[in-house]
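Reposting from the mailing list since nobody answered there.

I have sequence plus structure tokens for a pair of proteins and want to know whether others read the tokens the same way I do. The first protein:
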Amino acid sequence: MNKKNALLDKEETTTINDMSLNFQEEIRSFIRSLPNVELKHDPMSEEAYFYGLRNFAHFHGPRHIDIRLSKTQQEEALRTHMALQHKYAPQAGWVSCVIETVEQAKNTKQLIRQAYETCVSPKT
């Protein structure tokens, strides 16, 4: 690889990382704007968001967030490709989202809103 191509690859990587950090900050701000949400450490992540005792979203680095949905919401998110199957706890409603594009950030915020509303709504 010549120096010019190596520099372009480095610039592209830097741009992608910068965009990912911006998306992560956008998602963080969105979550923190939700009433009564607390940021706590959790065995799954140092950046986990809770409503009461329920962890409903947590980051794994700047481009990956896990979100806990109801089973119906989870099925819809997977069917519409808004989220990916969670690797370790899909049975608990968890899905995973990669945040690398504007559309992915928009979808992620929509799923976070659903997860939050599930936490807030009274159980019947």
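The second protein, same order (residues first, tokens after):
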Amino acid sequence: MINERLKMVRQTLNLTQKIFARSVFISTSFYTLIETGNRKIKDSFLDSVCKIYNVNKDWLLTGQGEMFRNDPPDVELEELTEIFKRLNGHFQGYILDQVRILEKVQKKELKEET
């Protein structure tokens, strides 16, 4: 059923009902009713889910094919990018410096493991 496949999409993306509902511009309570099969699902809602999360609409409707048209979106990376864009240049520079340091630490740890 479509409601079960919607839940699978949400869980695959590791999103709460609240975050998923907000992303497609509906209330959490309304989305919960959709996911539990207690609300009719409008085609415009399905179109939004498919567009925002790159979901294969045929799979969503029928269960046939792959869940995603391509790789699933990296929601955490998208969130990080949006936050980063809102920071001023000073903080952006600081974040980049910290990420570069973490990358060096990780490389060092990986070398030590091998």
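Reply #1 (J.P.):
I read it the same way you do. The longest helix spans residues 89-113.
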